[in-house]
């Protein structure tokens, strides 16, 4: 392709983005845009699937049948989100098996938050409230992402995440209004999940390497710090409402900026977890590898059936 026709394609592409016209799978797109989307969407898909593990850990120990049914449905929803997202990567030409191998071989990232353990039932409340709450804050703007299949997948994902956030808050509210031991359990879960939830939004704007380009392409609509601030502003009053305290002695409302100010985030901890050294990284990847191995017979049976069927159709 000669340089002038490439320039024309690039300028048509950017003007579509500037005019809020969605990019669809068969449209021309710069290779870097395609690769950025495959990177982000596959990391997001892996997060949904790995994210089933910390909560799956509590399905058999939910305190009653209603809680068990709700948690089971929530974890199944996360599986569904993962599947839409892997499908979205396939519309960009990615190979799902390859992406999953990348996760299993430690070449792919997934959200740092899922490398923390779930130690008590209250953690189910904290995850729904804080982790799904942070996920919604980050994902609602993704419903307006410039890439059509990702944006459309996000609409349904956000509806389900919103239900998840409410069920988590309701668990926390019940515990916070329960016995002193239950309230203590809720506070302990908030203490352990607060900072990791803030880290979910990614490195601060000064060090985020992808944000500027992703915003130009309207993949991202806000910076990591903007979304983190929105989350803090929305969540601190919710904690106060149920009588819990966020674990930050320096948090203060600034009446001029109309935002909360927080202590600095421990970025060293964040990068340790992202780079594979969090409390549960090895356990999470091992569980996913084991799940794939356990499912071999299902894939083999499906493949044998498909082959037999196509032979019958051809005959
Ligand atoms: N954990 O330049 P940056 C959910 C990586 S919710 C691990 O800011 P970008 C769920 C980043 O990938 C969670 N890695 O990147 C909820 C990049 O590394 P590479 C999933 C992180 O992409 C409840 C490097 O740091 N949500 O699924 O512009 C129940 C530099 O970062 C993290 C999504 O994935 C992190 N927290 O912005 C069940 C939403 N943060 O790729 C499931 C979609 C950053 O250069 N993703 N990194 O090696 C996004 O919105 C963006 O990718 C991010 C990061 C805001 C996360």
Characterise the protein shown here.
Helices cover 67% and strands 2% of the residues. With 315 residues, it is mainly alpha-helical. Strands 1-2 form a two-stranded antiparallel sheet. The chain has 13 helices and 2 strands. Benzoyl coenzyme A (BYC) binds at residues 39-40, 43-44, 47-48, 51, 78, 109, 111-112, 131-132, 135, 138, 199-203, 208-211, 214, 220, 224, 274.
Can you lay out the helices and strands and say which pair or pack?
Blueprint: H1 3-18, H2 31-50, H3 52-56, H4 65-90, H5 96-104, H6 122-139, H7 148-176, H8 180-199, H9 211-216, H10 224-241, E1 252-254, E2 259-261, H11 267-277, H12 281-294, H13 296-314
Antiparallel strand pairs: 1-2
Helix pairs in contact: 2-4, 4-7, 6-7, 6-8, 6-10
The protein binds benzoyl coenzyme A.
Benzoyl coenzyme A binds at residues 39-40, 43-44, 47-48, 51, 78, 109, 111-112, 131-132, 135, 138, 199-203, 208-211, 214, 220, 224, 274.
End-to-end CA span: 45 Å
- What is the percentage of strand-forming residues? under 5%
Strand order of the largest sheet: 1-2
Uncertain stretches:
none
Summed up, the helix count is 13
Helix amount:
55-70%
Order of helices and strands: HHHHHHHHHHEEHHH
General shape:
globular
- How would you characterize the largest beta sheet? 2 strands, antiparallel
Q: What is the average per-residue confidence, as pLDDT, rounded to a whole number?
A: 97
Small-molecule binders here are: benzoyl coenzyme A
């Amino acid at each position: 392709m000669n340089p002038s026709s490439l320039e024309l394609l690039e300028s048509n592409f950017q003007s579509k983005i500037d005019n809020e016209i969605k990019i669809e799978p068969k449209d021309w797109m710069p290779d870097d845009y395609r690769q950025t989307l495959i990177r982000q969407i596959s990391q997001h898909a892996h997060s949904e699937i790995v994210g089933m593990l910390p909560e799956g850990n509590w399905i058999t120990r939910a305190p009653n049948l209603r809680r068990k049914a709700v948690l089971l449905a929530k974890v199944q929803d996360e599986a569904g989100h993962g599947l839409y997202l892997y499908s979205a990567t396939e519309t960009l030409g990615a190979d799902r098996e390859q992406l999953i191998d990348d996760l299993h071989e430690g070449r792919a990232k997934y959200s740092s938050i899922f490398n923390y353990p779930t130690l008590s039932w209250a953690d189910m409340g904290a995850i729904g409230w804080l982790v799904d709450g942070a996920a919604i804050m980050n994902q609602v703007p993704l419903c307006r992402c410039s890439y059509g299949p990702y944006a459309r997948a996000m609409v349904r994902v956000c509806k389900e995440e919103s239900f998840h956030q409410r069920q988590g808050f309701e668990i926390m509210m019940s515990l916070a209004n329960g016995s002193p031991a239950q309230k203590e359990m809720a506070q302990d879960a908030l203490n352990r999940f607060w900072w990791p939830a803030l880290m979910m939004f990614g490195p601060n704007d000064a060090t985020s390497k992808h944000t500027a380009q992703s915003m130009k392409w309207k993949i991202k609509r806000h910076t990591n710090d903007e979304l983190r601030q929105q989350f803090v502003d929305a969540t601190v009053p919710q904690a106060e409402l149920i009588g819990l305290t966020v674990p930050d002695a320096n948090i203060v409302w600034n009446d001029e900026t109309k935002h909360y100010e927080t202590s600095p985030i421990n970025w060293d901890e964040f990068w340790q977890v992202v780079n594979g050294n969090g409390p549960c990284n090895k356990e999470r990847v091992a569980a996913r590898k084991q799940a794939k191995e356990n499912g071999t017979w299902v894939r083999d049976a499906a493949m044998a059936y498909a082959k037999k069927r196509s032979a019958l159709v051809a005959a």
